[in-house]
Amino acid sequence: MFPVSIKGVLVLPSDEVVLALNDRNEWELPGGRIEIGESSTDCLVREFKEELGIEVEAVNLVDTYLFEVIPDKYVFIVTYSCRLIGQFTPVVSHEHHKIETFPIDDLPNNLPIGYAKSIQKSFSMNLSC
């Protein structure tokens, strides 16, 4: 059995995606581990509040996949597209070193491929809506 992590793709009106820099010096999508009795969308809302101090709404399921975080350690990732509620005034929590936004067509090199694929898929889904 693998731990489950719920991640959110938040694309701002500027077509920039919100990413967080973790302890492995990798950019990642905000989100985290689901708690017992919590829905995946409630988890996502809670994690954005805890990690960035902002409110979001989960909109659409984007992707699911198994991610090898470090050799032989896997996490099942579930990504949702998100919509910002209110202002985008993020505050970096103790869980990350930085919060930054990146243009969809210029994502950082130290972003794991699964997150990059989820960002592209989410962006494509939003264009077709």
Automatic annotation (TrEMBL):
Q: Which cofactors must be present for this protein to function? A: Mg(2+)
Keyword hit for Cell inner membrane: no
Q: What Gene Ontology molecular function terms does this protein carry?
A: hydrolase activity
Q: Where is the signal peptide?
A: none
Question: Pfam families attached here?
Answer: NUDIX
Task: Name the InterPro entries for this protein.
Answer: Nudix_hydrolase (IPR020476), NUDIX_hydrolase-like_dom_sf (IPR015797), NUDIX_hydrolase_CS (IPR020084), NUDIX_hydrolase_dom (IPR000086)
Domain Nudix hydrolase: residue ranges: 1-125
Q: Which domain of life is it from?
A: Bacteria
Which controlled-vocabulary keywords does the entry list?
Hydrolase
List the Gene3D superfamilies: Nucleoside Triphosphate Pyrophosphohydrolase (3.90.79.10)
Family designation: Belongs to the Nudix hydrolase family.
Q: How is this protein named in the record?
A: NUDIX hydrolase
